[in-house]
Design goal:
Elements lengths: L1 E4 L9 E3 L3 E6 L3 E6 L11 H21 L2 H8 L8 H10 L3 E6 L10 E7 L4 E9 L5 E6 L1 E2 L5 E5 L11 E8 L4 E7 L1
Antiparallel strand pairs: 1-4, 2-3, 3-4, 5-6, 6-10, 7-8, 7-11, 9-10, 11-12
Helix pairs in contact: 1-3, 2-3
Length: about 190
């Protein structure tokens, strides 16, 4: 693949030349010259490839849906750079789940009002973080939503139930992004 920028001879050229190369335009002044793709007749896909294709179809449906929603469209347009669109960004957001980098239980000693810190990130925005606390026998002690801190990365959950026995306590954090992708992580104290 070759890139041609500000080339007056190739400016605006696009399409196929014989069965050899294809000219594609990206952005305002970039022409990409690449080899013509060969189509495989009757391709056989693995289960993993089928799952990726299905996920991509869902992402396309989501991205088309945001174009009709003025609020979401404005949200993604804030991040758009030249050569990308809100549609492309929504597609990318749908395909990437958020990450939970840290569940900090150092300040949790089993008292009411203790704070548990969760560091959750996403390529655009984490919408909410839910925290649940289970005892050693896997009985739910409490659950609720964490609040976003001023740094826009850390979420804090303030406990509302006392826990007299911390040994074996499981703290689970679940992060959700704009398209609704969720991921959960658990730490055992």
């Amino acid at each position: 693949m070759a890139k041609s920028e500000n080339n007056e001879v190739m400016f605006g050229a696009r399409g196929r030349v014989g069965n050899l190369v294809v000219f594609k335009n990206f952005g305002k002044d970039q022409t990409v010259i690449s080899r013509l793709r060969r189509k495989v007749k009757n391709p056989v896909y693995t289960d993993k490839q089928e799952n990726v294709k299905y996920k991509f179809k869902e992402a396309v449906i989501y991205a088309k849906g945001i174009v009709g929603d003025p609020d979401l469209l404005a949200f993604y347009q804030k991040f758009a750079k030249p050569g990308t669109s809100a549609y492309n960004l929504a597609l990318a957001d749908f395909c990437k789940v958020p990450e939970i980098r840290l569940i900090d239980t150092d300040n949790y000693v089993g008292q009411i009002g203790d704070k548990i810190r969760v560091r959750a990130i996403d390529n655009f925005r984490v919408m909410e973080v839910k925290v649940s606390i289970h005892d050693a026998s896997d009985t739910l002690l409490e659950a609720g939503l964490a609040t976003l801190s001023a740094n826009s990365v850390d979420w804090f959950y303030e406990t509302i139930v006392a826990n007299g026995n911390l040994a074996g306590t499981k703290v689970t954090a679940e992060a959700t992004d704009v398209p609704g992708n969720t991921i959960s992580e658990t730490v055992i104290i």
